[in-house]
């Protein structure tokens, strides 16, 4: 088997496509057979090599999951292991979520649809909720990247929204703590509607409401409160959201939220 300096086979290069990290031209035979659709990879690649990993622990499927549902489908038909993970526990499902590729997730799930593991559980649902080496699920990753369509696909197809990563954070924590203001649309509503989710605390003792206040997402904080978030939960620093409200000097920009809090039981006690 011909390998380049990165330990990649021609099939890895085919999956990478025009990725800038590819060194050297694609082999002529792979180039030739890539033209046209359908393309039966199994005619040109041995079953033994379909799941070979490069120096980073990635298979061709892992690279294809970044961008191309057609390539993912061809690899799956040729016998690629859809749930194989890298040394860091990253699967093709995690990679597709990171890239915001709901269409790739759809292809992956279609090949697992109806299959069950040894415990009788649905393989596709399990794959959508699988945790990587840091405990992150594809849903957490999609929420962190604010890939709304991908996150909605994951939730709609059974991804577990209550899983916590190694830091104790849920998908909701990641959505609220992302660098992009979360959209108060389907994904947001779906997560908030999950019983108990709004009041789960991470290892720092923060609920999603804490992160909403820390990031100055006061309109979303209001929605969390209306969804049942406990406003008086204190984190490991002993802070509830009222402490955060005044500590960050955001109170003057969001007097409507302060008025809402003032009308709630426990407000006077929290000021003491």
Give start-end ranges of low-pLDDT stretches: 18-29, 34-38
End-to-end C-alpha gap: 72 Å
Tell me, rounded to a whole number, the average pLDDT. 81
The topology string of helices and strands comes to HHHHHHHHHHHHHHHH
CATH class of the domain at 1-81: Mainly Alpha
Radius of gyration: 23 Å
CATH topology description of the domain at 1-81: Serine Threonine Protein Phosphatase 5, Tetratricopeptide repeat
InterPro entries: Ankyrin_rpt, Ankyrin_rpt-contain_sf, NF-kappa-B_inhibitor
GO molecular function, one term: NF-kappaB binding
GO cellular component, one term: cytosol
Keywords: ANK repeat, Repeat
Secondary-structure blueprint:
Blueprint: H1 10-16, H2 28-34, H3 60-64, H4 69-77, H5 92-99, H6 102-112, H7 123-128, H8 138-144, H9 148-156, H10 171-176, H11 186-192, H12 208-214, H13 218-226, H14 241-247, H15 255-262, H16 267-271
Structure explained in plain terms:
The structure is a single chain. It is built from 16 helices and no strands. It is an all-alpha fold. The chain is elongated, with a radius of gyration of 23 Å. 39% of the residues are buried. One of its GO terms (cellular component) is cytosol. InterPro entries: Ankyrin_rpt, Ankyrin_rpt-contain_sf, NF-kappa-B_inhibitor.
Structure described in brief:
One of its GO terms (biological process) is cellular response to tumor necrosis factor. It is built from 16 helices and no strands.
Structural key phrases:
272 residues; mainly alpha; Serine Threonine Protein Phosphatase 5, Tetratricopeptide repeat; 16 helices; 43% helix; 0% strand; elongated
């Amino acid at each position: 088997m011909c390998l380049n300096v990165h330990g990649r086979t021609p099939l890895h290069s085919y999956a990478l496509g025009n990725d800038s990290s590819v060194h050297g031209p694609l082999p002529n035979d792979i180039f030739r057979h890539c033209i046209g659709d359908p393309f039966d990879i199994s005619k040109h690649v041995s079953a033994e090599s379909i799941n070979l990993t490069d120096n980073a622990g990635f298979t061709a499927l892992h690279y294809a999951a970044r961008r191309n549902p057609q390539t993912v489908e061809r690899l799956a038909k040729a016998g690629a292991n859809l749930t194989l993970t890298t040394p860091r526990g990253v699967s093709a499902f995690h990679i597709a979520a990171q890239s915001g590729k709901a269409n790739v997730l759809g292809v992956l799930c279609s090949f697992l649809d109806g299959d069950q593991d040894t415990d009788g559980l649905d393989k596709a649902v399990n794959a959508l909720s699988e945790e990587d080496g840091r405990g992150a699920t594809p849903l957490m990753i999609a929420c962190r990247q604010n890939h709304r369509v991908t996150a909605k696909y994951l939730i709609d197809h059974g991804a577990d929204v209550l899983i916590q990563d190694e830091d104790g954070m849920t998908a909701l924590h990641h959505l609220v703590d992302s660098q992009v203001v979360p959209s108060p649309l389907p994904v947001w509503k779906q997560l908030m509607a999950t019983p108990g989710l709004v009041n789960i605390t991470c290892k720092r003792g923060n609920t999603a409401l804490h992160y909403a206040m820390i990031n100055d997402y006061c309109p979303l904080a209001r929605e969390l409160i209306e969804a049942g978030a406990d406003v008086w939960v204190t984190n490991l620093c002993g802070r509830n959201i009222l402490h955060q409200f005044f500590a960050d000097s955001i109170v003057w920009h969001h007097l409507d939220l302060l008025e809402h809090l003032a009308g709630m039981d426990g407000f006077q006690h929290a000021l003491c």
